[in-house]
Amino acid sequence: MSEIDKFVRLFAVPEFVVPHLSLFLSEREMILVARLNGEKCSVSKIVLRMNSNFEDVQDLLDACYNKHLVHREEVDGDYIYYGADFYELLDYICKFDENYHLIDKDLRRTLDKWCYRVYRERMDSYLGSLLEGETVDRAPETFLMIEDLDQVLESVKDIRLVPCNCRKLASHCVKPTETCLSFNDSITDRTFGRSLSKEEAGELVRAAHKKGLMHQVNSDWRTKGPTYICNCCSCCCYPLRLAQEKGTKGVFPIIQFMVQRDDAKCSHCGACAKRCNFRAFYIGEAGTVVKGKNRRKVELDLNKCWGCGICKEACPTKAISMTQIIAIG
């Protein structure tokens, strides 16, 4: 078995990617992972296996660690390294490699399908535990109302902006991609992105809101502090795609609010229908007359509402409000 073949096996590279490996990493990076051989190794051991000097190997390890080709742990004051996998590498590349968008569209489409499938498989156990009411290691998402944004931002110290991996991979819409915020202890030495002030973060989320993006936050943010805000669309967002596929609305994500409409105020302009990610609002077949003008009625199917709240500000007549149905924390 060649070292490249060994790398493909150890790094869990999907078969369709093998002819395109040079788009994602160098031969030397592949050889490093192959020579780690699925083991946890010290730098001195890796120096021997790479038949190189310490400085060159350390530089290679640092670059590969940043790129999510390898992971590391601190043991007795020293680092030991071990291989990651292609799924983790792809997450880094789609967000931070400026040439990712130049990859052939068909290949990127296949990468998205593959990545979503792996994500779905890795979420099976977590979703199963949530559905069974078992204790999980992290709280599921919930939708954040835009009026609660300032409270979230006031409770955090450090804010980091990173690209949305879901929209970078899926590209099902043209909504902004520089939209994901990490906070405080969730920011690591491999979060990258750029730091924002609270004012900058607030402006970014409100701009995303105007673009029709929903806001998700960890559901225990009031008691344990916020760890992230993701500004999401239902067509690209992996968690929302999975929730729609698996029918986990209410558990993953947790639904705290439900829309209400004052029919007497509704002008049936259709602004809410254009904003709704889940087709809870839609243009019906029946007609109506508003201020002497014939219009088709905008219907509301409450069963399809996910309580994200982005329809509320879109309504010019203030006919829409959000009612809390469950309190968390």
UniProtKB/TrEMBL annotation:
Residues 257-286, 296-325 form the 4Fe-4S ferredoxin-type domain. PANTHER family: ADENYLYLSULFATE REDUCTASE, BETA SUBUNIT, FERREDOXIN III. PROSITE patterns: 4FE4S_FER_1, 4FE4S_FER_2. This is NADH:ubiquinone oxidoreductase chain I-like protein. Keywords: 4Fe-4S, Iron, Iron-sulfur, Metal-binding, Ubiquinone. InterPro entries: 4Fe4S_Fe-S-bd, 4Fe4S_Fe_S_CS, Fe-S_Ferredoxin. The keyword ATP-binding does not apply. The keyword Cell cycle does not apply. It comes from the Bacteria. GO terms for molecular function: 4 iron, 4 sulfur cluster binding; metal ion binding.
